[in-house]
Sequence to fold (776 residues):
Amino acid sequence: MSKRLTGLLAFLLLILAVWISFNFDQPNYHSGESMTATAFSTDRALKHVEKIGNIPHYVGSAAHSEVRNYIVDQLQEMGLEVQTQEGYNLDARGTLVLPENILARIKGSGNGNALILMTHYDSAPHSSNGASDAGSGVATILEGLRAFLEKETPHQNDIIILFTDAEELGLNGAELFVKDHPWARDAKLALNFEARGSGGNSFMLLETNGSNSRLIKAFKAANPKFPVSNSLAYSIYKMLPNDTDLTVLREDANINGYNFAFIDDHFDYHTAMDLPARLDCSTLKQQGSYLMPLLDYFKDADLDKLNSDRDLIYFNLPFGEFVTYPYDWIIPMLIVAISAFILLLIYGMRRQAFKIGDIFFGFLPMLISLIASGIGVWLFWKACLFLYPGYDEILQGFPYNGYNYLAAGILMAIGICFYVYHLFRKKSGGKNLFIAPLLLWIIVCALLSVYLTGASYFLLPVFFGLIQLFVMIRQEKPNRALMALLCFPAIVLIAPFVWSLPVALGLKMLFASGILAALLFLLHIPVFGYFKKLKTFGTLCIIAFAVLVIIAHFRSGFNENRPKPNSLVYVQDLDEKTANFYSYDHISDDWTEKIFGDDPQVHTNPESNFSSKYGNGFTFSAEAPMIDLPQPSVILSEIENDTANISRYSMKIAPNRPVNRVEIYELNDINFQDFSANGLAAGSLKKAEETYHVHGKRWQERVLTYYATNRDTLRLEFSFENRPDHKPKFVIYESAYDLIGNRDLGVEKRPKGMIPKPFILNDATILKKTVSLEKE
Fold:
C-alpha cells in the first residue's frame, strides 16, 4: 500500500475511533416501536412524562397534589396497595418542609429483604416543569413496573416503590423515609433515577459506604445492554458533596444503590424549558434499558451479600462492553509499564534508534503544547464571556450554544498541538518526540493510582503506546494505519471524558478539556509524527474552530427556543416602611427595563442573600410602591427556665396570606443552646473535615428556610446564654410566588423568549420583618 493511502487510512481510522466513542452506547428510539405488554415501552413512558411534566409541580403548588394523585392512581390501577407518608422534616442545613412520599410494596417469597425503585416527583421551585427532573424517573418506574407485573414472574425479594417528595428542597422526603418509615429497615439496595439535563447518555453512579466489588459484579451480571459508567466518575463522586436521595439512604441507613442520571442539555435543568418535548426519547429508553435487567436480576439476588471490602476498576466500551479488574492489579500494572518503558529505552539506545539530545528536546514541544492549549482555551472562553455577557445569565454555566464552544475549544487545543509539533518535528524524529509524552503519561498514571485510583485505567492506553514505541524502534517508518489502530484505546477511553467534563461542570472547565485534548494528542504522535503536513492539519483545525465560533455567534442571541433567564422580586420592609424591586441579573432586557430603566441602578442595600444553589445576590434595585400585603403574625414569648444563665423563648409565625417560603436569619452570630422548628431539631453537618450545626455551631446567618404547603403556624423554640451583649436579632422574609400579574404592582407576564431564572428566589413578593431581643 502506498504511503499516501496508508496516511489516508490512518486518518480515517482515527475519525472512525472518535465516531465509535460517541455512538453505540445508547439505544436508538423510533416512534411506534413494538409495545408488547411484557416489554418496557418508551412510548408508554412518554405518556407519563407528558402528564407529569406539563406544568410546574413544586411543593406547595396545586399541581403538586395533582401529580401525586396521578401517580397514586397509576399504582392502584396495577393492583398495588398504595400509601403516603407525610410529616415535617428538618434537615441539617436548616430546611423545614412537610413532604408527602408515595409508597407501595410488592411482597416476595423470601425473608423480607427489599429492593427499592425510587425517584422524586416534585419539580424545582418555582417555574420548572420537571419533565426530565424527575418526571422521566417517575415514568421509567411506572412503565417498568407495569411490564414487570405483566410477566407475573415469581420473585424472592420484596420490591418497594418509593416516590419521594421535596428532593429539590433538601432531600427531605428521602430523609423522612429513612428516619420514620418501618420499611426502611428492610431495604438493602436502591435503584434511583435522576436527571440534571434533558438528554444524553444515562450514567450509572454507584453509592456505597464500603467498597464496590460485589455491586459492580452484580451490575455486570445483570447485563444492561447500554452501560455507561467508569470508576473515575465513582472516585470523583465519592470525593464531592453529593445531593441525591440515594445519598441520604446510604449515609443514614447504609443502603447501597445505583444512580442513573443524564446531564446533557444542562441549560434546561430546573428551568421552564424542562418540558416533555425537550426530553431525549433515546435517553428515556436507556433508563428503561437499565431498570428492566437490573430489576430482573435483583428480584432474586441475595441482597445481604452486596457489601464488600475490595474495589474494582471498571469502565464501559462501545457496543455495550463493560470491563472490570481489581484494584490489586493497579500497582503491578504500573510496575510493568515503568519496567517496559525503561527496557524499551535501553533497547532503543542499543539499536541507536534514539538520540539523547533529541529525547530531551522532545520535552519542549510537549510542555509548550500543554501550556498553550490550556491558556489558549481559557482565554478563548474568557473572551466569549466578555463579548457575550448574556451567557452569565445562564447559571448552569453552559449556554444554549455551549456545544459549539466545547467543540471549538477542543479543536483549538488540537490545532495548537499540530502547529507546535510542526515546528519541532523536523528537528527530532517521531520516536524521539514520543518518549517525553509516554513518560508524562506514566507519571500521571502513577499519581492517579495514589490520589484518584478510579482513573487508573488510563494506564491501558499507555501499554498500547509502549507497543507503538517498540514498533517505532524496530521500523524506521512504521505503518501509520497500524499506529492508528493502536490509538483506539486512547480515543475510546479518554475522548468521552474530554467532552463530558464541561458538560457536567460548565464551560468554566473548558480549559481543562483543552489540556486533556492536548494530552490525548500526545498519545497520537506515533501517527502524526510521520505526517509531513502537520501544519495543514493545524490549519484545518483552526478553520473548523472559526466555523464553530461563527455558528455559535449566530446562536448567541435569545429567542423562544433559547429563552433568556431573568429575575425580579418585590421586597417590602415592614420596619422601615419602604419597598424596592430587586433583580439578580447582570444585563437588563425589555422586560426588566420597565422596572429598572435603561441604566439600572446597582444594588447597594445590604439585604441578606436568600438561599440558592450558587449563592447569588441582588444586582439591580429600584424603588417600588408600598402596597397592601397581609403581614404575618409574629408572637415572641419567654419561656420559664430553671437555669439562670440560659434564656429560653418561643416564637410563632403565622402567615396571613398564601405563602411559599419563609426564611429566617439571625444577625448577631448567636450559637443557640438548642433550637427547634415545629418540634424538630436539626442534625450536625460535616464541612471540610469540621463538624458544624446550623443552630449550635453556625457558619451562616440563615437559621431556617421553611417551605410552606399550607398556612400552618411555624413554631420555634430556642435558648441561648443569658448575657447583656448576647441577644438574638432575627430577620424574617416571607415570600409568595405571586409577583407576576400582581394588579397593584403592574408587573406584566414575561414576553416570549424569556423565562424565570432558576436556582434563586424569583417572581416573589417578599415581606421583611425584624424581631429583636436586643432591647430587653
